[in-house]
Write a structure and sequence with these properties.
elongated, 6 helices, single chain
């Protein structure tokens, strides 16, 4: 019994030392979360495992710059051509020859009655083409037909009438007393509206007749 006591003591000392060393290592090393992969410092990650960054395409950067250069070149070319035409004596004489009869005609027609008539006609054009673009094309579309050329023609007519109305009003304000008379302006606007509605009705009837003629001209399939 006395011989076994040193052996038991040595076993107990060895077990205590193992427990103490285990607790020491557990305190020094951080506990990893369950199921988490071990972390590796960034400077120790292999180069082939690092995701490659998308490279910038120089061709896509050149496209906007090339478009801007084309626009600038075209603008500078147009400005150079206009500058050369403005300094050309022949071109200036031709332009003066075109404008001279128009100036003379404008001076001879600078009286209130002419501006009243011009205002009424331009107002009639605005009313007529506006109704034709909205109501007239809607009626034709309900009949199963549409004509892009008619739409474009009516749109151009509306723009011309609107510009003419603005220019007529400006010219009458500078060269006559038309705009100073409320009765003249109201009567011209009313006359233009009535004439515009009549023109709209005539234009719509012509388009409907054209649609009917196209349908009757198509060959009928025999059963």
């Amino acid at each position: 019994m006395s011989s076994n006591r040193p052996n038991l003591r040595s076993c107990w000392l060895l077990a205590v030392m193992l427990l103490v060393s285990r607790e020491t290592w557990a305190q020094e090393l951080p506990e990893a979360a369950p199921g988490a992969a071990p972390t590796v410092p960034a400077n120790q990650v292999p180069a082939d495992l690092v995701p490659a960054q998308p490279a910038e395409n120089p061709e896509t950067e050149k496209v906007p710059a090339a478009a801007d250069e084309l626009v600038d070149d075209a603008q500078s070319t147009v400005e150079d051509i206009a500058r050369k035409i403005d300094t050309n004596e022949t071109a200036r004489e031709v332009a003066a020859g075109i404008l001279q009869p128009i100036y003379q005609l404008a001076e001879s027609l600078a009286f209130p009655a002419f501006h009243w008539l011009a205002f009424a006609l331009m107002a009639a054009g605005v009313v007529s083409f506006s109704f034709q673009l909205v109501l007239g094309k809607l009626v034709v579309l309900m009949k199963g037909s549409i004509n892009l050329r008619e739409i474009f023609s009516d749109a151009v007519g509306l723009v011309i009438s609107a510009v003419g109305l603005v220019l007529t009003t400006q010219a009458s304000a500078e060269n006559s007393t038309f705009t100073q008379s409320a009765a003249a302006v109201l009567s011209a606007a009313a006359a233009g509206a009535v004439l515009g509605l009549c023109l709209y009705r005539w234009g719509q009837a012509q388009e409907i007749n054209a649609v009917r003629g196209q349908r009757s001209a198509k060959p009928k399939h025999r059963s």
